[in-house]
Amino acid sequence: MPETAELIISILLLGAALILSRQFHAWKIKKAYLSIIVDLKSQDAFNPRSAIALPYANRPIIRIGLRDHRPAALKSLVADHIVGITEDGRYYILDKSV
User: Fold this and answer.
1) What pTM does this model have?
2) Do the domain assignments include residue 98?
């Protein structure tokens, strides 16, 4: 096989691997969004008085095992004003339509 064809195939495979890895992480973050919302709804955390502390809100200093996408997803939900945070670090749902 010519060297040019090998180079093109290698670039295409590298691009496909990049796209697949990004899709995988997007899927994991979406699952994390849903699990956070389910956790908050199951605890009836709909206002600052009923807000709950989430054990996965902060990333641990030492990460052992698989990557946990919930801290990043929680930051994104707070930034998008779907989830609110109290002054003492407890979380509740702002947007009840989710």
Assistant:
1) 0.76
2) no
